[in-house]
Amino acid sequence: MIKVDHLYKSFGNNEVLSDISLEIKKGDVVAIIGPSGSGKSTLLRCINLLELPSKGKIYIDNDDITTFNQRNVIKIREKVGMVFQHFHLFPHKTVMDNLTYAPIKVKQTTKSEAQEKAIKLLNRVGLSDKVDSYPSRLSGGQKQRVAIARALAMDPEYLLFDEPTSALDPEMVKEVLDVMMSLAKQGMTMAVVTHEMGFANKVADKVIFMDHGQILEVASPNEFFNHPETDRAKEFLEKVL
Amino acid sequence: MGIFSGFSLIASSIPYIINGVWTTLEIALVSAIIGFVLGVILSLFKIGNIKILAWLSDFYTSIFRGTPLILQLTLVYFATPQLIGYDISAFLAAIITFGFNSGAYMSEIIRSGINAVDKGQFEAAGALGVPYWSMMKDIILPQAIKKILPAMMNEFITLTKESAIVSTIGVLDLMRRAQVVAAENSLYFPPLIVSFAVYYVLVMILTILGRLFERRMSRSD
Looking at the complex, does the CB of residue A84 fall below 8 Å from at least one CB of chain B? Predict the structure, then answer.
């Protein structure tokens, strides 16, 4: 379980997260939505310590990760995978090497084991024919699917998605969402920052609505999309739906 | 005496001059290797978060960039015996000076390369739990070096040409050999133009090799 407890984050004098508390239970899919600049991505990046919180606590399986030193940070990153808006595949490595590098380096998996697993994962995201390609040869949607497979190669217990479809051409959004949907069905615990309301509505167990660094609503998709409580959420939904 | 008859007068010495290319190349190559290794280490210090190492690396760089190379060379060659009582050979003095000097320039080139790597690469490696030094070695530096290959090739060519000043401490490189033959025959144009041509051909070959290497490295684009 991930538990965020009264979290604050400031960049200089600019407070981007203010008193954030939330829980993500094992197997839950949580969609974090809200206007740009509302702090969604920063919140996500705090959960795997890509950003250091200014105040507050974050518990992952009862460990307070805000107290962790560099060595322990690696432990967190093994547990919590991340998929980025701009993929960030390693451009000088083939798809296969992108998937096997971290397991071999960080988890001391043997090369043959890592490769076997990589092929399984590439099958799962429908890209087994791209094993030996370099990322530059892939479309945006393919890159993002490889990036998801790369995160999965570490056997994470939680997966964070930071606007995974925002950098994609419209016709490639679906192939990525389909992969995410099948992950959700298989019980992966996911926190997804997204502008895809359809995905949030259909797949999420819980929707978190943020604005100006604060959580304004936490609700089931049905409640949130049909009966939003705050004026800000109503206003937002009117614009995006 | 015509210019061309001068060449026949020194004909038997021409191979001697040309063979100086091996000394020149040896100095350039060994110095480049020292410079590269030093450059990587210094650049990592410069971008790292240990302030004292960053400061020392900047200071090191400013020393080598802020003084004439010929003075550095002379100092190493003539002062080392007086300072530590070690009778340094001209060749060793040459590769130490050029290697250390090149390290200063290389560290700036490599640092600019590291800064040019997408920040997302650091985050992606970090998010996968890759330790800092592995990330640098396997993810960041290979991409940085690919970006700076032209600049590094340029540095190597500069090194090759600038190595001519080792002639001032008596290393028998291309330049020095031309001077020796010139002095022996009191004839300047032919031996100097021979070494001139050899330097030029050498740099052209290195330029072509550099381009081929760059092309090979850009396979993943």
Answer: yes
Token pair 């604060």 is at which residue? Answer: A214
Contact at CB, A106 and B221, closer than 8 angstroms: no
Using pLDDT thresholds of 50, 70 and 90, give the confidence band for residue B121. very high
Which residue positions in chain A have pLDDT lower than 50? none
**Do residue A88 and residue B121 have CB atoms under 8 angstroms apart?**
yes
Continuous segment of H or E residues that includes residue B151: helix B141-162
- C-beta of residue B110 within 8 angstroms of C-beta of residue B49: no
Q: Which of A84, A102, A136 sits opposite B220 (nearest CB)?
A: A136
Whole-number average pLDDT of chain A: 94
Mutate to test the interface with B, among A46, A50, A90, A95 (most CBs of B within 10 A): A90
Q: Which domains does chain A have, with CATH numbers?
A: 2-240 (3.40.50.300)
Q: Do B124 and A89 touch (CB under 8 A)?
A: yes
Q: What ipTM does this complex have?
A: 0.92
> Coil, helix or strand for A211?
strand
- Its pTM stands at 0.88
Q: Please name the member of A48, A105, A134 whose beta carbon is closest to the beta carbon of B127.
A: A48
Phi, psi of B88 (to 5 degrees): -70, 140
* Pairwise CB contact (< 8 Å): B219 & A134: yes
- Asked if the Cβ–Cβ distance from A154 to B121 is below 8 Å, we say no
Q: What count of other Cβ atoms lies within 10 Å of the Cβ of residue B158?
A: 14
- Cα separation, A134 vs A145, in Å, equals 14
Element (H, E) at A60: strand A55-60
DSSP secondary structure of A68-105: --HHHHHHHHHHEEEE-TT----TTS-HHHHHHHHHHH
B128, B135, B216: best mutation site toward chain A, by most A Cβ within 10 Å? B128
Residue with tokens 């400031």, as numbered in its chain: A10
Measured in angstroms, the CA of A84 and the nearest CA of chain B are apart by 8
Contact (Cβ atoms closer than 8 angstroms) between residue B13 and residue B191: yes
Q: What is the pLDDT of residue B5?
A: 76
Distance CA A39, CA A94 (A): 34
Torsion angle of C-alpha atoms B45, B47, B51, B52, degrees rounded to 10: 20
Residue A162 phi, psi dihedral angles, 5° rounding: -100, 95
